[in-house]
Amino acid sequence: MRSKRRQHVLLFVGLFIAAISLWLILRQVCLSCIGEALIGTDFRYAIPAFVVYFSNISLRASRWSIMCSAPNRRYTDPRFLKILLVSYAVNNILPARLGEFFRIEYNHRLSDMTRGESLAKQLVERLFDMFALAVVFLIALTAVRFDLLWNNQLAEVLISFLVILVILVLLVLTLPRLHTGLLSTWINRWFRQHATLHSIMGRLDEERVAMIAGLRKFEAAAISRISALTALIWGLEAFALYLVCKAVGFELQAGGVMLLLFLSALSTLIPTAPGYLGTYQLSFVIALQPLGISPDTAVAASIIQLIANIGLSTLIGGATYFIPVPRHSKLDNSAPNSD
Hints:
Order of helices and strands: HHHHHHHHHHHHHH
Number of helices: 14
Distance between the termini: 49 Å
Structural class: mainly alpha
Largest sheet: none
Oligomer: single chain
Shape: globular
Number of strands: 0
Strand content: under 5%
Helix content: over 70%
């Protein structure tokens, strides 16, 4: 009952944020002008953007397969491509990024990893992406006039991002020691006093131990490959965004592309409506308006971006869900390890 209530609260919060964002956008745009901009889309740039986005999903799947690998466990990429595609589709359809929790369960069902270990891998993946966004922001900050960023009322957004980044870093650094902390002791004692929750606590404790073990399994070689893939992924994201802007009829310099990439990525991290409706368009307006791009053109670019990035991944992910793959399929462990 409480779980359903929380889901309803998240849905309400997401729809409320989306409604406010749409209201802020509709106050300053002309719908007919947006339609004209979309009709005039240059497909010489739009189609390559679609190709780049789809290729980027394959890179994300490769990164996820490296994260989930172990010395005695090597998975094939097609399985993780399916996990990523289906999870992205669920994320795009449901509010508040509930697809992240779906991926934990889905990864557990298609592999032999525990949910705790899968959560640990996903936490590291998000941490790499947050560091990449920090680099993107620093590039934007040095390439775009500082007064444009600050006078555009972005201070709250930027400070919130830095606070979240610090919290994630501290969480990952302290998680392996969490089982010895006073808070964990108090929680264990409270659960033991409630017989009906004791079995649940035992299950949660197993997942917690698996999560801590998962965080400790990363090797230096794997971290290097993950870092390289992360840099390539976000570089291609920026290039695809540049192509989308060209398709609508304007060109951004490197700083503008990085600023747009940073804000549009942040807009997908907060609870919002399905398909990031409202917040995604608002992020384009906030990023592009101080650079001289009209809100009408900015919204048109955001719509093409949604179709290329979110719409395409949702359709492919939904179709991929019905493609059967063998469970717990591993590469031949009897073969000598070439690493």
